[in-house]
UniProtKB/TrEMBL annotation:
PROSITE patterns: ABC_TRANSPORTER_1, ABC_TRANSPORTER_2. One of its GO terms (molecular function) is ATP hydrolysis activity. Keywords: ATP-binding, Nucleotide-binding, Transport. Residues 15-243 form the ABC transporter domain. PANTHER family: ABC TRANSPORTER RELATED, IMPORT ATP-BINDING PROTEIN. It comes from Cryptosporangium aurantiacum. This is Putative ABC transport system ATP-binding protein. GO terms for cellular component: membrane protein complex; plasma membrane. It comes from the Bacteria. InterPro entries: AAA+_ATPase, ABC_transporter-like_ATP-bd, ABC_transporter-like_CS, ABC_transpr_LolD-like, MacB-like_ATP-bd, P-loop_NTPase. Pfam families: ABC_tran.
């Protein structure tokens, strides 16, 4: 049984995380000693040039990949001490993930997509629970719609409701607005920020977009697998300037 502590002020943390990918001919250091804390109830954007290690950081933090060195904690659990089965359970019960491609099952309705994680965990969600989850993302009237009958932004909102149905300690989002137009992106980002402000949800989001990053409380910048800076209460202009400096 996994010990979890929902009152912890730290939702997730990485300590001295290194990730080295080895292929037959090459050795790539994707993360090179990353230490970072994600306090509960905060919204962090992770930015950096292409190949700087953003997705690797998210995958390691979410227990989808294992660091070569260092420790990862989520909800008071040391993820890096868990075996594969325990990690799967932790991901299922305490971690939410949203991707650029919404990854909804096309044959299921919005409500059925949202309840899927609980059903896979052999838990039977009540109708009210699913209705509340869809209402929280502004889709109370779309429960019976299939993904093809929803706009991109609505599909992403279903994916967010699905990720939140198990009340995860952290919601990790990898380019959640990457496939959306700017108006729809802003709606989804406003929704994410509202979940943090109203429900104290913790969110960690990888993005290339300075405007998206400006919805976060803090931006963490990566370069060559290292944390090279942070910006609190970021504006899009300040983020763009810092990014341009890192890319030059
Ligand atoms: N499975 C893998 N095998 C080998 N190398 C990998 C693997 N995954 C990532 N890498 C390498 O690790 C480094 C970091 O990759 P990562 O995808 O984390 O960067 P990123 O900042 O998310 O990039 P982008 O913004 O382009 O998506 C890159 O040099 C990449 O080529």
């Amino acid at each position: 049984m996994l010990a979890t502590d929902q009152t912890t002020a730290v939702a997730a943390a990485l300590h001295g995380v290194r990730k080295i990918y080895r292929t037959r001919s090459q050795r790539v250091t994707a993360l090179d000693g990353v230490t970072i804390v994600f306090p509960a109830g905060t919204f962090t954007a992770v930015m950096g040039p292409s190949g700087s290690g953003k997705s690797t950081l998210l995958q390691c933090a979410a227990g989808l990949d294992s660091p070569t060195e260092g420790t990862v904690e989520v909800a008071g659990v040391t993820v890096t001490k868990l075996n594969e089965t325990q990690r799967t359970l932790l991901r299922r019960d305490r971690i939410g993930f949203v991707f650029q491609s919404f990854n909804l099952l096309p044959s299921l309705t919005a409500a059925q997509n949202v309840e899927l994680p609980l059903r896979l965990a052999r838990r039977r969600p009540s109708g009210a629970q699913i209705r509340d989850a869809l209402a929280a993302v502004g889709l109370a009237d779309r429960a019976k719609h299939r993904p093809t009958e929803l706009s991109g932004g609505q599909q992403q909102r279903v994916a967010i409701a699905r990720a939140l149905i198990s009340r995860p300690a952290v919601l990790f989002a990898d380019e959640p607005t990457g496939a959306l137009d700017s108006t729809t992106s802003r709606e989804v980002l406003t929704l994410l920020r509202g979940l943090v402000d109203r429900e104290r949800q913790t969110i960690v989001m990888v993005t290339h977009d300075p405007i998206a990053a400006s919805y976060a409380h803090r931006v963490v910048f990566l370069a060559d697998g290292r944390v090279v800076g942070q910006l609190a209460d970021p504006t899009a202009d300040a983020v763009a300037a810092r990014l341009a400096h890192l890319e030059s």
